[in-house]
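Try this one yourself first.
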């Protein structure tokens, strides 16, 4: 069930009509964003492998889509737990359904653009996953956004999210340092794939996944009816083809686009879309500059060691992250919405704690809302489902913590991640 967004000229209430009006495009900012993106593209094309400029474009499209749809994971979980509205959760289920449909043949037949090996995100199930995903659920509600939400909110000028990102990076770095303890000293099961660990194959795993998504979507409808939850408020939007560049996109359209872009990412670099491994890399490189022997950490042994010695632009996740920020910046400027926001003592302290919890939790849980939840479930990994359940539990607890920092727990539905 979706909410029709009325054109401004059909709205009679002057207050609502004003809230739906589009701002003028910020042309100088658009030009600046496009120029920076073009320069970065040329630099990557000249200095890095052929995949890097392609991934930057995919990142731009991801950020553009996330901002235009205000496609949230944090807000979707919060709306579900606080007021019972499941519209965004149903969009998640559509996104995951399209993703598994695309991922199944890619993973089954090893389809890639450049002949590299293709592998999904299938991670162990153990104490580290349980603790990490629960921490992440709390952190994203305090920090004001998930991993993808942090990036696209920064692109949109939400000032406090810079604080969240800084402490997200610190938390991810400390989590990388501690990860061997969580994974080697504490109990865990081997990675479990619905496709390869159960005998179902990718076809059978696809059927099971689609059934699960349908069941979850149906449950959200039942909860909505029982709780008589309010619908999501409409956001400003243009009409016709102009809506592609200016205004709010339907959540379900964005869900499909995000799933397709994730599949293209998988075929381009051999692994799905991820975000937070780059944060651990950035933080570790910064720590190394201050004399910390990060190369001796268990996290950076084996195949990961080369990343510490290479340029961050050689890291495909870093390039995707920069693309997301730039794509969201261009999208916000096109809608006339880029504006730095106010920082208060409450949201500052919440962002510090939330960022630390998300960074640390993402490393323990083998990813964030993108790498573990979206990428894990799309890869038919059991850990992705467990991540979602524990992040919801963390969200429930965070609803009682948010007021301590002056953050609202709305009875109506907000629309940002």
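Now uncover the answer:
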């Amino acid at each position: 069930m979706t909410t029709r967004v009325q054109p401004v000229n059909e709205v009679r209430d002057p207050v609502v009509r004003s809230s739906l009006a589009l701002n003028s495009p910020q042309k100088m900012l658009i030009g600046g964003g496009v120029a920076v993106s073009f320069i970065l593209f040329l630099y990557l094309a000249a200095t890095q492998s052929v995949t890097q400029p392609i991934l930057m474009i995919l990142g731009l499209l991801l950020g553009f889509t996330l901002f235009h749809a205000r496609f949230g994971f944090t807000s979707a979980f919060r709306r579900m737990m606080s007021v019972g509205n499941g519209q965004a959760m149903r969009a998640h289920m559509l996104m995951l359904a399209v993703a598994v449909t695309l991922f199944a043949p890619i993973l089954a037949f090893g389809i890639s653009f450049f002949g590299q090996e293709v592998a999904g995100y299938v991670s162990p199930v153990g104490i580290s996953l349980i603790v990490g995903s629960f921490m992440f659920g709390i952190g994203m509600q305090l920090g004001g956004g998930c991993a993808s939400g942090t990036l696209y909110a920064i692109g949109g000028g939400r000032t406090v999210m810079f604080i969240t990102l800084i402490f997200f990076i610190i938390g991810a770095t400390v989590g990388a340092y501690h990860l061997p303890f969580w994974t080697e000293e504490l109990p865990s099961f081997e990675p479990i794939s619905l496709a390869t660990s159960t005998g179902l194959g990718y076809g059978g795993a696809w059927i099971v996944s689609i059934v699960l998504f349908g069941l979850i979507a149906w449950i959200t409808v039942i909860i909505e009816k029982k709780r008589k939850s309010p619908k999501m408020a409409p956001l400003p939007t243009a009409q016709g083809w102009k809506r592609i560049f200016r205004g709010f996109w339907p959540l379900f359209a964005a869900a499909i686009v995000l799933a397709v872009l994730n599949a293209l990412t998988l075929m381009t670099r051999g692994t799905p879309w991820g975000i937070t491994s780059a944060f651990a890399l950035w933080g570790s490189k910064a720590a190394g500059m201050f004399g910390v022997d990060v190369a001796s950490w268990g996290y950076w042994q084996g195949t990961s060691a080369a990343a510490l010695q290479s340029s961050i632009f050689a890291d495909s996740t870093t390039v995707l992250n920069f693309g997301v920020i730039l794509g969201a910046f261009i999208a916000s400027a096109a809608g006339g919405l880029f504006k730095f926001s106010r920082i208060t003592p409450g949201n500052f302290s919440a962002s510090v704690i939330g960022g630390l919890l998300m960074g640390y939790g993402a490393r323990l849980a083998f990813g964030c809302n993108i790498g573990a939840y979206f990428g894990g479930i799309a890869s038919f990994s059991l850990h992705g489902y467990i991540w979602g359940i524990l992040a919801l539990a963390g969200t429930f607890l965070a609803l009682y913590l948010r007021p301590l920092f002056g953050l609202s727990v709305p009875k109506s539905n907000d629309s940002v991640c």
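Discussion: The two ends are 20 Å apart (CA to CA). Residues 24-405 form one domain.
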